[in-house]
Amino acid sequence: MIGADTFGAPNWVDLSTPDIERAVEFYSELFDWDAAVTTTEMGEYHIASVDGREVAGMMQQSPDHAGVPATWTMFVYVKSVDETLEKVEEAYGHVLQAPFDIPGGARVSVISDITGAMFALISGGEKPDGVYFSNSPGAVCWFELLTRDTDGAAKFYRDVFGWELALDESTETEYATFRLGGEDIVGMLPMPEMIPDDVPAHWAVYFTVSDCAATQKMAVELGGEVAVPTTDISIGRFAVLEDPTGAVFDVMEYTSMD
Predict the structure, then answer these.
(1) pTM across the whole model
(2) What CATH number should be reported for the domain holding residue 74?
(3) Which of 102, 119, 189, 245 could serve as 70's disulfide partner, Cβ 3.0–4.6 Å?
(4) How far apart are the first and last CA of the chain?
């Protein structure tokens, strides 16, 4: 089974925001998160939990990132960040932040794929336990790449992580999933025409909710905005929202929450 400790699979997501207090308040209310603060050399790091299970991190942007939009970043677990970076560069990706060590012994680097989508690599440190994705409300349930070059992306992730592409012929859109070890791990979708040209390729994070429409309504009441309203799809309902600090995220209500 693909788990949070599977090399080449996503195992974490965190938010970089210019207003950490407002962000923590927003998500804690929206997803019923318990946020604990830990102090690191890089500043305070807020770890969000649901029913005792850690699901995401949040931190204040550093001063040298002033003006950079608030962003959720996907982390992919690898054996060695440094060795993986060699594959990234061979596949024409880019290193956005050189490798650095974080408390706990883990090593991190921020990169972008050949189409410009940003994400992070992480290795070492305490070995993650269990499966990261969950259908429990408030937890991360999926990651999805939106890009204008699906062929280029497919080759990049195959060369770097060994992901294999599988097209979903059950939908009208050109939806695809990436598989690792025969299991679906993330999705990919051509950038929708409604998205402005200046929006770069990016990884979207989905959080599970029990009622998509109610979550959308609450997000607006808490100061957020709606990018894509609640929409029915074959497996449930989803919406694309924006928090009060500008970070975009998705919520997903599954037809079956089992």
Answers:
(1) 0.94
(2) 3.10.180.10
(3) 245
(4) 17
